[in-house]
Design goal:
14 strands; Metallo-beta-lactamase, Chain A; seven-stranded mixed sheet; globular; alpha/beta; 7 helices
Length: about 325
């Protein structure tokens, strides 16, 4: 598949939507962005999309401009069917053209039903165009076990989130990334809402799953204080995110799934707090922002050389 200049890098990750729960546009969220979960990944000309929150709309529009009359091929993986991960899909323009090939992959094996969820949100009661009019779709498949998609080897794992959510580790010859979009620390009640003795074991398994990842994109919706009031809601908090990244020897941690109520300066403060934690010594920490791009292995080499730019600047309210 043809691609843009990002193909000059081995592995390119571009954030298209970084908020959780609901879009939150406005002046106070403009710098990090207000769109919900969507990530564009490119490697060796192969386009991989992670989730279809409201951020997928701009991605689709950009792809239409980039490719013009040429066909667009892409694999779109959906971690789970909560609204903030599928609400942008009806506005994904490439899916309406029969000349394109958009393959959907369902990651949440605990609660299959992607087709039903997508069709449901496009019923005439909610939306004027039906799923059947998306002639660019070439099918929906379940993501089972390690899967090879072009240059990517993809593995999935179950995360701690009400209703279930899948996390992914994506390996290429240039580097690796892990995407854990909605995840509450395993030290808290499990997905079934019960405290079980296996929670410590589940965290250890997750650490093995993430071990040595070049880039970890991780749900870090809450500060430590906020999380104490939201236990069981299915989202992560700052100290646990930093500890998980450090224990898994990940090279870069992107704080993700920002709270829709958090202003830009509050996210800045979270980044500054994270970088001061003892566990953060060996991890480059930043907050995901719309249209920011991570290149591998280029960024990994720069990180090793201490040449990366500090993007976070604390601002007053």
């Amino acid at each position: 598949m043809n691609s843009d200049s990002s193909s000059n890098f081995g592995l390119t990750v571009r954030f298209r939507g970084v908020r959780g729960s609901i879009p939150s546009p406005g002046r106070e969220t403009a710098r990090y962005g207000g769109n919900t979960s969507c990530i564009e990944v490119r490697c060796d000309g192969h386009l991989l999309i992670l989730d279809a929150g409201s951020g997928i709309r701009s991605l689709g529009n950009d792809l239409m401009l980039e490719f013009g009359e040429r066909p667009i091929q892409a694999d779109l993986i959906i971690s789970h069917t909560h609204w903030d991960h599928i609400q942008g899909f009806p506005f994904f323009a490439p899916a309406y053209s029969g000349g394109n090939q958009i393959r959907l992959l369902e990651g949440n094996r605990e609660n299959p039903g992607l087709a039903m969820a997508l069709r449901g949100q496009m019923q005439s009661l909610h939306f004027p165009v039906s799923l059947d009019q998306m002639h660019g779709l070439v099918g929906i498949e379940e993501l089972k076990g390690p899967v090879r998609l072009g240059p990517y080897t993809i593995r999935s794992t179950a995360l701690n989130h009400p209703g279930g959510c899948a996390g992914f580790r994506i390996e290429t010859e240039y580097g690796s990334l892990a995407y854990l979009p909605d995840h509450e620390p395993f030290r808290q009640p499990t997905r079934n809402g019960k405290s079980e003795p296996t929670t410590a074991g589940a965290r250890n398994e997750l650490i093995k799953f993430l071990q040595g990842t070049d880039l970890l994109i991780l749900d870090t919706q809450y500060t430590e204080d906020e999380y104490s009031r939201h236990v069981g809601w299915g989202h992560g908090c700052l100290p646990d995110s930093v500890a998980l990244a450090a224990d898994a020897n990940t090279h870069q941690l992107a704080l993700f799934h920002h709270d829709p109520c958090h202003r830009d300066y509050q996210i800045d403060l979270m980044v500054q707090t994270a970088r001061k934690m003892e566990a953060a010594v060996a991890v480059k920490i930043f907050a995901a922002a719309e249209m920011d791009t991570v290149h591998l292995p280029t960024d990994r080499l720069k990180t090793a050389a201490g040449l990366t730019e500090d993007r976070s600047a604390v601002r007053s309210a």
